[in-house]
Amino acid sequence: AVFDETDSIDSHVEDTLIAGAGICDRHAVEFVASNARSCVQWLIDQGVLFDTHIQPNGEESYHLTREGGHSHRRILHAADATGREVETTLVSKALNHPNIRVLERSNAVDLIVSDKIGLPGTRRVVGAWVWNRNKETVETCHAKAVVLATGGASKVYQYTTNPDISSGDGIAMAWRAGCRVANLEFNQFHPTALYHPQARNFLLTEALRGEGAYLKRPDGTRFMPDFDERGELAPRDIVARAIDHEMKRLGADCMFLDISHK
After folding, report:
1. What is the pTM for the complete model shown?
2. Domains: count for the chain
3. FAD-dependent oxidoreductase 2 FAD-binding domain location, by residue (predicted)?
4. pLDDT single digits (tens) 61-81
């Protein structure tokens, strides 16, 4: 989001359109860029603690870092575990909200569609069937409205930093219920993860490259300038393809991320 006084929403929009390679819906981009700051502020109001620092003038402000495709520092973060900070804060708020009931150890199996159970009127979703892992039974959850917030399907790929639950179940449930599904070819891969042949890989934050880390071949030479003038701060799809290209070209198991010069 635009938090730096030297930045602008127009610049954020332009960066996004360029990174989108002509595929973006400009109206959607403008809407998101214009409302991003208020959404981040909402997270702050809920209790999310983003890192701050003291400016030369003595004032405290949020510490902003830079990521691929951005021409300015726009990334608020909580050390290198921003997702965990956001998730734990929101889960805590939900668990303590009087109007929210959380079903733990429960997995949605399918949506309940009115015409499939013989209800009259317009076809609509009226709830979900849920597998209760404690009781090992399928339970019926009726609802006036259903929102699917299940993530994507990137775990279908062998190499990904996405969790095992990114299996596409929510998309499949929506499809079976008759929802229109689009743009399934767009799976974003985070370019950098720790390589260990005998352990589970984990994501290496993009902020490393934002703070000046270099991507290098096994011989220690940089390769990103050969692919994009923005180097390591090119958009993620370009960086991921460049890493993949160099690994295949050289027959290498991995590339290297070097921030030792900082």
Report:
1. 0.83
2. 3
3. 5-261
4. 999 999 999 999 999 999 989
